[in-house]
Structures are given as C-alpha cells and as structure tokens.
Amino acid sequence: MKTIENLTREEERAAEVFRALGNPARLRIVTELARRNVCITGDLVNALPLAQSTVSQHLKVLKEAGIVQGSIEGDQCYCLAPDVLRWLAAFCTELCCPAEAGDTPGCGPASRRPG
Amino acid sequence: MKTIENLTREEERAAEVFRALGNPARLRIVTELARRNVCITGDLVNALPLAQSTVSQHLKVLKEAGIVQGSIEGDQCYCLAPDVLRWLAAFCTELCCPAEAGDTPGCGPASRRPG
DNA sequence: GGCTCGTATCGTAAAATTACGATACAATGA
DNA sequence: TCATTGTATCGTAATTTTACGATACGAGCC
C-alpha cells in the first residue's frame, strides 16, 4: 500500500485503529472483552470458530494497535484499553458533526462550497 | 477470510465500516469531505498522491460501505452520509462505556470475573 | 527430571487488497 | 460530427492479510 504522506498524526492513528477493528474476528474479540471485562486467551478461542494460533495473532494486532492490553500477569489476561475507543468515538463525532462549522452538511448542486 | 458466523448484525455492519475507514487514503477522503462538505472526484484526486482510477476505486468502497453518498447529479459529486459516522461513534462509546454496567473496567488478577 | 496445559511464534498457502495503466463512456463544446 | 474532459470500470502485478498446523516456551505438577 502506498503511503499517504499528508495525513495528520491523528488521521494516521485513526486509520491504524480502524484497520485493526475492521476484521470480524477482531471486532468479535473486542465486543467479547467489552462484555466480560477481562478474558484469558482460551476464553476468546472458545468464543471464536478459529484456531488458537489465529486468535493469538489477532490479539497481537489489537495489542499493537493499543486497543487491548495485557494484564500484569504476563500478557495472558486481556482487557480493553479504556481510552482508545473513547478517543475513536470522539474522532468520528468530530468528522460528522464539526462543532464549530455552522454549515449544514448535505449533498446537492446548491451546497457546493464557493471556495 | 473465514466468516465468523456468530456476529450480530450490528457487529457485522461495524466491521464493514471500520474496514472501509482503515485505509489511509480512504480516511483522507473522508476527512477531506468533512472539511469541504462536498467534492467532485477531481478534488479528491488532487488532494491525494494517487492515480485517478485508484481514487475512484476507494470512493466505490466508501460508497458501498455507506460512508459517502453521491449527489443527485449522477454520482459525480460526493459528500459524507450523515448518519453512519454518528452511529459508529455511538457504537464505540457503547463498547468502552457500557452505560448499564456498574463494573469498573480494568485489568489485573483481582478483576477477573468469577464465571 | 519429565509431564501436561495454555499461549506465542514460525513457516506457509490461499485469499484479499492496493495501485496502476488502459480503456470505456457520458456530457460538453467547437 | 468530432475532439475534449471527467469519471468509472477492466485487467493485472505486487503486496498484504488471513488462517492453519507445527513448534517453542514457560508455569505448574507428578
């Protein structure tokens, strides 16, 4: 994939997190963690129709994206990182509802900005 | 990619939208649309260091995910679909801050659920 | 020491994504 | 009618992702 160099740091980070969440198995892991608060790998392997090694790899991706974190027990007890999803929610809200802009969003020939 | 069959419809939809946003070029398109409100394809081609055909393909992905929509002028004038990002923000918030649950999230040996 | 159990990592095959040039196609204007 | 312009689609090569089995590795127990 070609690197898009004029991304802001925020956009770059958001793309990374979006990508990690954009896989059904990984999203399932995240919802499972949200439901249970804390899981060991085995819990997640049981919850998914995938091989243990595959689940472990997905966990690694989620960990690298900062979405889940291991406990102090040596990476065998996972939970959601509390801030990332909150930040992502704010990012999405900012995109669709820019607080400052008074423009009413919407398509159509008349709504094209003059600039 | 293997299909995870026990995803809820909401999770499936979220994964689709996350995946579409999880590419730097596409996220750039979305932020550009958020900034300008409305763009024709050429505007986006100019904003990105990619070939016209590539940008067009990314637009198609975003359109199929329901994130952008074409205007009535025959798909040549794009804007953000107003509801999807709002919905996605709500989805993320629900994941990290489940309103009902009184449990305090967090890792550690003591917080493992008894079940 | 030698088991078993749970998990991470390695190597690899299949599938999907990404980007590009070439081309098609509709609208516009000479 | 014929060229031009803007955009979508096609075909394809390179890269990345996904999933699996095999294997390594540490902890706990005999």
List key phrases describing it.
homodimer, 115 residues, mainly alpha, three-stranded antiparallel β-sheet, disordered C terminus, DNA-binding
Structure description:
- The structure is a homodimer of 115-residue chains.
- Helix content of chain A is 53%, strand content 8%.
- A three-stranded antiparallel beta sheet of chain A has the order 1-3-2.
- Chain A is globular.
- By secondary structure, chain A is mostly helical.
- The longest helix of chain A has 15 residues, at 82-96.
- The two termini of chain A are 32 Å apart.
- Mean pLDDT of chain A is 84; it is low at 100-105 and 108-115.
- In chain A, helix 3 packs across helix 4.
- In chain A, strand 2 (68-70) and strand 3 form a beta hairpin.
- Chain A contains five helices and three strands.
- At the A-B interface, helix 1, helix 2, strand 3 and helix 5 of A face helix 1, helix 2, strand 3 and helix 5 of B.
- Chain A binds a DNA duplex (30 and 30 nucleotides) through helix 3 and helix 4.
Q: Report the sheet with the most strands of chain A, covering strand number, pairing sense and barrel closure.
A: 3 strands, antiparallel
Specify Rg of chain A, calculated over alpha carbons: 18 Å
The overall strand count of chain A is 3
Q: What's the multimeric state?
A: homodimer
| Residue runs with pLDDT of under 50 for 5 or more positions of chain A | 100-105, 108-115
Instruction: Tell me roughly what share of residues is in helical segments of chain A.
Output: 40-55%
Give the SSE string of chain A. Answer: HHEHHEEH
Number of helices of chain A: 5
Shape of chain A: globular
Q: Which two chains touch over the largest interface?
A: A-B, 63 and 62 residues
N- and C-termini, Cα separation of chain A: 32 Å
Kindly report the average pLDDT value of chain A.
84
- Sheet with the most strands: spatial strand order of chain A: 1-3-2
Portion of residues in beta strands of chain A equals: 5-15%
**Broad structural category of chain A:** mainly alpha
